[in-house]
Amino acid sequence: MKILLFGATGSIGSVVAAELVARGHEVTGVTRSGPTGGEAGLRLVAGDVTDPGQVAELAAGKDLVASAVGPRVGQEDDREVLIGATEGLIEGLRRSGVKRLVVLGGAGGLLTAPGVRVVDSPHFPELWKANALAQIEALARYREVDDLDWTYISPAQLIEPGERTGRYRTGGDHLLTDPDGRSRISIADYAIAFADRIERGDALRTRISVAY
């Protein structure tokens, strides 16, 4: 499969890229700065995900576009980056004719009780609140789109480097927790879930969540 991946050198995107390459996919990674090394088998190019024209040009001839774009914590405006990427991807794919889009989402909008989101907790880190709210807005925008086959994949509440076990559970709009009440997943296992969803081609026009 020919895949265009935005955010391919980020902490999560780089692992997603490596997983896809290892599975034999032809991956073109897009970064704001252009080629900077990268994984073997990964072609890196420069591009701006907020520019629909560039998205359309880069997506031409691809089977699928994926995005692991995220703002640099404390260094960029979360909403500007995430909503800019959302609008750029939607319009860019429409121009390109590519229908399939898989997006790294956030966990802040997952429900912990009816009408109660993760971000609503008084213990939610202030540092991540703007990011969570922007991700919620981005998902709402995707849910207005009925002419693209998008999938929004939320990780567990805690996603961090860790073991690649190949094990995970899939849910929907509710926060997944383990028997001890923890919601977590390693970046490596999130990348497996992300790649699995790309290959299965299902869960269209919906948000799914993954966790242990």
UniProtKB/TrEMBL annotation:
It comes from the Bacteria. Residues 7-195 form the NAD(P)-binding domain. Pfam families: NAD_binding_10. Coiled coil: none annotated. PANTHER family: FLAVIN REDUCTASE (NADPH). This is NAD(P)H-binding protein.
